[in-house]
Amino acid sequence: MTTDKYYRLHLMQITREQEDLLTEWCFTQGASGVAEALDFSQSLEDYSVATQSQEVFSCDVFFEQAPPADLIDELRARWPNIVCKLTSEANQDWLAEWKKGFVPFPLVPGIWVVPRWCEVPKEAEQVIWMEPGMAFGTGTHETTQLAAHLLKEALTKRPHARVLDVGTGTGILAILAKLLGAKEVIATDIDPEAVRVAQENFVLNTVEEIEVSTKELSEIHGEFDVVVANIIDGVLIVLQNGLKKKVSDEGALVLSGIIDERLQHFKERFVLPPLKLVETGREGEWHAWLLERG
Predict the structure, then answer these.
(1) So what's the pLDDT on residue 38?
(2) How many CA atoms does the CB half-sphere of 81 hold within 13 Å?
(3) Rounded to an integer, what distance in angstroms lies between the CA atom of residue 189 and that of residue 194?
């Protein structure tokens, strides 16, 4: 049964010895879910994330309906060391709320990104229809906009190009490449959910011929006139050799996702040759590069 509010029981100072019994007891009290507050560490080199084990931890327990009146008293009697707080919070249609803030906007001059549920603005010469789903990349983020502008720049010099979009997300840059005249576009992403969402967006924009998969760079054959990678800078550093190998003679490489505080680190770790840096872009705290071979 759906109600206008749900209940959150926040538990602190839980020991690992208490974890299993406590979780089981919460479900017997009518809980619909339990979420541990995990602690993470992140590598400065490539942004990889590792979970940190904690002997004492916190968690949230969720109830769709009001829990038993004696819940807190019984919990304290069973586990006196655990600190707890029960609150009620309003249910919301989070997707509907999010959609209110996602409106049509120009990605590059003349080409607008239009959410599937919106009307096409009069100013739009071409449209990229977007159903974001759970994947990254609606086009509103600075890194995507930077990549889009440099991709347009690269394709202006290379009509009917063969394009590789690495880390495609929702597929927005792959679709843009087709609208800008690319002859062939191949897209990849390590996230199967992103591949699913991208495929849906390709159908929505009638560009089903774009090939999208979870293939590694080494599994993709041939070279490309333009390679675009809108990924965090640490991953760009890790993938740099593979990316450069995919750029054809006189081809271009677009890199986006370089955050300001790591720009110097990126400059030190990303080896330019055999490419040369021909243009840079910046929006807010984000940077993008356009490199060319030849």
Answers:
(1) 75
(2) 11
(3) 7
| Helical residues (DSSP H) of the chain, grouped into ranges | 16-28, 71-78, 94-100, 142-156, 172-179, 192-204, 233-245, 263-269
Task: Read off the pTM.
Answer: 0.74
| Alpha carbon 171 to chain centroid, angstroms | 11
Q: Are β-strands 39-42 and 105-108 bridged in parallel, bridged antiparallel, or unpaired?
A: unpaired
| pLDDT tens, position by position, 133-166 | 655 666 778 899 999 999 999 999 999 999 999 9
Closest CA to 103 of 114, 111, 92, 90: 114
More confident residue, 47 or 202: 202
Report how far residue 111's alpha carbon sits from residue 114's, in angstroms, rounded to the nearest whole number. Answer: 10
Q: What is the rounded CA–CA span in Å between residue 188 and residue 168? A: 6
What Cα–Cα distance (Å) separates residue 165 from each residue in 60, 71, 87, 170? 39, 53, 45, 11
Question: What is the model's pLDDT at position 89?
Answer: 85
- Of the pLDDT bands very low, low, confident and very high (cuts 50, 70, 90), residue 1 is very low
Please, what is the end-to-end C-alpha distance for the chain in angstroms?
A: 64
| C-alpha–C-alpha distance, residues 260 and 133, integer Å | 28
- Residue 85 corresponds to which amino acid? K
Alpha-carbon gap, residue 177 to 1, rounded angstroms: 46
Which domains, from first to last, does the chain contain? 5-91 (3.30.70), 99-293 (3.40.50.150)
